[in-house]
Design brief:
- By secondary structure, the chain is an alpha/beta fold.
- It is built from five helices and five strands.
- Strands 4-3-2-1-5 form a five-stranded parallel β-sheet.
- Helix 1 packs parallel to helix 3.
- The chain starts with a strand and ends with a strand.
């Protein structure tokens, strides 16, 4: 079984380089065969909405939309429950494949065997 990689990204347009790094590592993890779980928290919560990742621009970085699509195709993407609520994002608002879940599931994922957790 492949090692699990849990990535929590807290940054969005407020810290574009950190944000891009998190999505890049998640997509590379998927491409490397890791079981990837990407958590959207804080300002990255906005990327759970359709079209928002396509609006993100950072010179010399891969398009965020493509990175997110790769993770959605082969991994899981979770929007933090509290972060969604603070931004008035509901289940019916998010793009297909994104789930909304809270800290209990995050803790369960990061405490599993053979898990590497990263926070950006």
């Amino acid at each position: 079984m492949a090692k699990k990689l849990v990535i929590k990204v807290t940054a969005g347009e407020d810290a574009p380089e950190r944000c891009s790094q998190a999505f890049t590592v998640a997509a590379v993890g998927v491409a490397s065969g890791a079981q990837v779980s990407l958590w959207l928290t804080g300002e990255s919560a906005w990327f759970a909405l359709p079209g928002r990742a396509a609006q993100f621009k950072l010179p010399h970085s891969a398009p965020l939309e493509e990175l997110l699509a790769a993770v959605l195709q082969a991994g899981t993407v979770t929007l933090c429950t509290q972060c969604a609520a603070r931004r008035d994002i509901a289940e019916h608002d998010v793009r297909p494949g994104v789930r909304i879940a809270g800290a209990q599931l995050f803790v369960q994922e990061v405490l599993g065997d053979d898990v590497q957790a990263l926070v950006y």
